[in-house]
Amino acid sequence: MEIRVTTQTVQEIKCDALIVGAARKTGPSEKGVALSTTATVIDTLLEGLLHERSQDGEFQGNLGELITIHPTGRLAAKRVIVVGLGRQEKVDTQAIRRASAIATRHLQNTGAKQVVLALRWESTQIDDARVAQAQVEGALLGAYQFSIYQSTGNNGKSISQVLLLADDEHKNAYEQAMRKGQILAEATNFARNLINEPPSVLSPTELAHRATTMAKQYGLESEVFDEAKIKKLGMGGLLGVAQGSAQPPRFIVLRYRGAPQSSDKGLALVGKGITFDTGGISLKPADRMDEMKGDMGGAAAVLGAMQAIGALKPRINVTALVPTCENMPSGTAYRPGDILRILNGKTIEIVNTDAEGRLILADALSYATQEGFSPIIDLATLTGGIVVALGHTMTGLFCNDELLTDDILTAGRAAGEKFWPMPLDDEYGEQIKSDIADIKQTGGRLASSVTAAKILEQFVGTAKWAHLDIAGTSYVDSKKPYQEKGGTGVGVRTLTELAFSLAR
Ligand code: BES
Ligand code: ZN
Ligand code: ZN
Predict the structure, then answer these.
(1) How do residues 427-441 score in pLDDT, each as one tens digit?
(2) For the segment 246-277, what is each residue's pLDDT rounded down to a tens digit?
(3) Is the CB of 473 under 6 A from ligand 1?
């Protein structure tokens, strides 16, 4: 797909469709919609047609609402798509991103090849460049398809060119914003591809292979620990979980040096990389087990973020640590009742082999702590409990540092990803006391996301640390107007924004 900035006038741009925006007016005496900058120009050229179509209530400007207008010769564009931006006073970059995604998806599904993004929104509240970036992100995320395993491919439905409309004065700023949006969206889509791959294809070895291939392409250093090295280091959690599978585990390390002179180890990003989670001996029910191919969503997010960081180059050192294996039941599988020894020497009494994520993360967090990284951010599809608590809308955020919490919330807002702070109160620690080992693997049904986080906390020493439980947000089980079913790539954009804010 080609993507670039254009400074042609709206009248002369030849394309299948021009996307403009309109917001819903909400004042008591206000009727109709507020048109975006380009929509106003088009409305004048079409003698008030856009306003007319909204007057009778056909189009109200609700977020994602669409109407198609055929300019019949008065513009070079074949179609104009007006997309709703939601309530006027609430238009923000996330509204622009969603609207752009919905319109682009609709256009792709209806056969458009060349589309123009003209969602520019003049407002004192949002930055012009951020709006441009959000348009590009939305379009590339909305156009994402995973069709390599369908014999008919994408049925020829694929957008080939995206143009971002700018004026001469803003051309450079728009080009920069476009580049940033494109890098972030491509990195998110890289993560989504990893999640969507079948688990037979994306084994731990293949995940490592894709990580090192990407690293080469983006100028990152990479190192992959094989089973022998993992044993030598004493990663008993990763080995324990992996021992039921025919696939050997891997431990992936990618390094980006954005501050080579600094002695600060910098940021570590840790991602849960369970390429398939059957539950092991504590086998999961069959219903929707297929979705457990996405149990490496944390790993995918971390690798996607490294791709974006490699391209955008913040001045900070960032290291990705990804423990990866498969959780299978078999004659060699680990069992409830077993005791595993983690890299930092602590022992864990196994209660339920389906609580495998915390075990492989315990090794990775111990490794990160031993190496002196701070802050350490881990991402994991860790618990069903977080899905019950926050649904598919927000990611659970557990953090031992207030400033880091704020940084993540702010980065999330810029990225259009939502996080909700969750507790790490010490009283929850009571639930993971063991009679036979240092700690018990699970804390029972109550507050299961919190007790899972309390286990991870045991392995971070004095580092600043945040744990993002993305079990609800990393995978969507049905199509949305702005998104395909499958991996979302959540975390990629927030982590990249975070790297920039920590670099400052
Ligand atoms: N991978 C799952 C968590 C999960 C659930 C991810 C739903 C995505 C969607 C994890 O390994 C798991 O099975 N957790 C158990 C732990 C329990 C046995 C203590 C859970 O949360 O139910
Ligand atoms: Zn599990
Ligand atoms: Zn799992």
Answers:
(1) 999 999 999 999 999
(2) 999 999 999 999 999 999 999 999 999 999 99
(3) no
Residue 169: exposure state from Cβ atoms within 10 A (0-12, 13-18, ≥19): exposed
Contact 22, 34 (CB under 8 A): yes
The pLDDT assigned to 87 comes to 95
Where in the chain is CATH 3.40.220.10? 2-159
- Domain 2-159 has what CATH class? alpha beta
Instruction: Return the pLDDT at 457.
Output: 98
Helix, strand, coil share of the chain (percent; to 5): 40, 20, 40
357: CA distance to ligand 1 center in Å? 8
* DSSP H or E run through 142: helix 128-142
Q: What is the CA radius of gyration of the chain?
A: 24
Q: How far is CA 325 from CA 277, 341, 454, in A?
A: 9, 17, 23
Output the pLDDT for position 481.
Answer: 87
Please report, as a single letter, which amino acid is at residue 199: P
- The low-confidence residues of the chain, meaning pLDDT below 50, are none
Give the pTM: 0.98
The whole-angstrom distance between residue 229's C-alpha and the CA centroid of its chain comes to 30
* Angle made by CA atoms 325, 330, 336, in degrees to the nearest 5: 85
Q: Which residue intervals of the chain bear CATH 3.40.630.10?
A: 188-503
358 noted as active-site residue: yes
The pLDDT value recorded for residue 419 is: 98
**Of the residues 179, 255, 284, 480, which is catalytic?**
284
**Side chain identity at residue 264, one-letter code:** D
Residues paired with residue 79 on neighbouring β-strands, in sequence order:
17
Q: Write out the two tokens for 253.
A: 């390390």
| Domain topology for 188-503 | Aminopeptidase (3.40.630)
Of all atoms in ligand 1, which is nearest to the CA of residue 449?
Answer: 21
What percent of the chain clears pLDDT 70, i.e. is strictly above it? 100
Closest protein CA for atom 11 of ligand 1? 355
